[in-house]
Amino acid sequence: xxxxxxxxxxxxxxxSAFFLQVSIPGRLYTVRRVADxxxxxRGKARLAVLVSQGLYICEPDPDSVQKVxxxxxxxxxxxVLSETDIDLLALALQIxxxxxxxxxxxxxxxxxxxxxxxxxxxxxxxTRRWKIRCSGCGRYLxxxxxxxxxxxxxxxxxRKIK
Length: 162
What we know:
Layout: E1 10-13, E2 27-30, H1 32-37, H2 41-52, E3 56-57, H3 62-75, H4 83-95, E4 98-100, H5 104-112, E5 117-118, E6 130-134, E7 140-141, E8 157-161
Parallel strand pairs: 1-2, 1-4, 2-3, 4-5
Antiparallel strand pairs: 6-7, 6-8
Helix pairs in contact: 3-4, 3-5
């Protein structure tokens, strides 16, 4: 962290934090899905060390998940956020924590929710508003279809910078 930044009281860790040997300030939190994603020995070992040092593994409440999902739809990031990403954002929102992640879509949605973000290895993402557009007929949509296909022409629907 930079010297002029205030250390967070609560830090919410994305999966990437378990593969780096970086010091993260504050009380540490993550969600069960992150722990389940850790398959290699290095990630599991880092998880075990952090749990022994007081890392909390908990789940966000449904209201926070709903708020994050709604904002991810508005920002245009919902189609690229996993359920793990949604849970992490919801937990950070719920506890007033800082999100430690290098995922740009998570950064973007977090900024819309006023969740502080601290990148681990990447630069902080700029806030973006995405448009959802069919690559075939050019039609703009309000949200990404579940199968990412245009209901009019059947072409692939993609995110575009607004």
